[in-house]
Write a structure and sequence with these properties.
Elements: E1 2-11, E2 14-24, E3 29-33, H1 40-47, E4 55-60, E5 63-64, H2 70-76, E6 77-81, H3 92-101, H4 107-120, H5 136-148, E7 154-158, H6 166-181, E8 185-189, H7 193-196, E9 202-207, E10 210-214
Parallel strand pairs: 3-8, 3-9, 6-7, 7-8
Antiparallel strand pairs: 1-2, 1-4, 4-5, 9-10
Helix pairs in contact: 3-4, 3-5, 4-5, 5-6
Pfam family, one: ABC_tran
Domain ABC transporter: 2-221
Family: Belongs to the ABC transporter superfamily.
């Protein structure tokens, strides 16, 4: 599903990721931990092509990432962020639907799928509410629905619970786990070790120089 070999990325002469090898298989549910500055968020930005230049080999579904067009990446990969990244001037429905419209999907399909996802994430009745009228947990649920609209094979979540209390954090990861059980590959970047230990998952720690796969009893960043 995701294969990385000898990945290196530097900014202004400072190495952020060095000689990284990583394999994530179809159907994996992965927590990626690591200290600030270890390159976790940079890795996710490479996978979504927000960052376009790197050295090394990155393949998704056995395709060279460099050769995959950005709109195809947006269909294949759904993204979730700590800060929700919702458009303040758009309603819940509009924020979700926009993800499908920008990649050229039909309006009826986008409409039907948006309403279905709103129901799935527990926000039915709030279709026309603006983000500033939602709690943090509700905003992140909108972000999850938006990430799912294009029926991605992969979900990348960058600190998706960072702005949530422990109860809402658990519910968001629980929702992502449900999606994983339906076949979606999920990679979650987090600093929350206790949360990571609460779910059946593959645990990885990213350090400069590589990624280590851990057993839960030995989890230490």
């Amino acid at each position: 599903m995701i294969t990385i070999e000898n990945l290196k990325k530097e900014f202004n002469g400072e190495i952020v990721i060095e000689n990284l090898d990583l394999q994530i298989n179809k159907g994996d549910f992965v927590f990626l931990l690591g200290k600030s500055g270890s390159g976790k968020s940079t890795l996710l930005k490479i996978l979504t092509k927000e960052i376009r230049k790197w050295t090394g080999q990155v393949r998704i579904d056995n395709q060279d990432l460099c050769k995959i067009q950005p709109y195809k990446i947006r269909r294949k990969i759904g993204t979730i962020y700590q800060s929700f990244e919702l458009l303040k001037e758009k309603t819940v429905y509009e924020n979700i639907a926009l993800a499908g419209l920008v990649v050229g999907r039909g309006r009826k399909e986008v409409h039907d799928n948006s309403l279905s996802l709103i129901k799935r994430v527990g926000l039915q009745g709030k279709e026309n509410v603006y983000p500033n009228r939602l709690s943090g947990g509700e905003q992140q649920r909108v972000a999850v629905a938006r990430a799912l609209l294009n029926k991605p094979d992969i979900i990348l979540a960058d600190e998706p619970t960072g702005n949530l209390d422990s109860e809402n954090a658990f519910h968001i990861i629980e929702l992502l786990k449900e999606l994983n059980e339906e076949g979606v590959t999920v990679l979650i970047v987090t600093h929350d070790q206790e949360l990571a230990k609460s779910f059946p998952a593959k645990l990885m720690v990213m350090r400069k120089g590589g990624v280590e796969i851990l057993e839960k009893h030995s989890l230490s960043v």
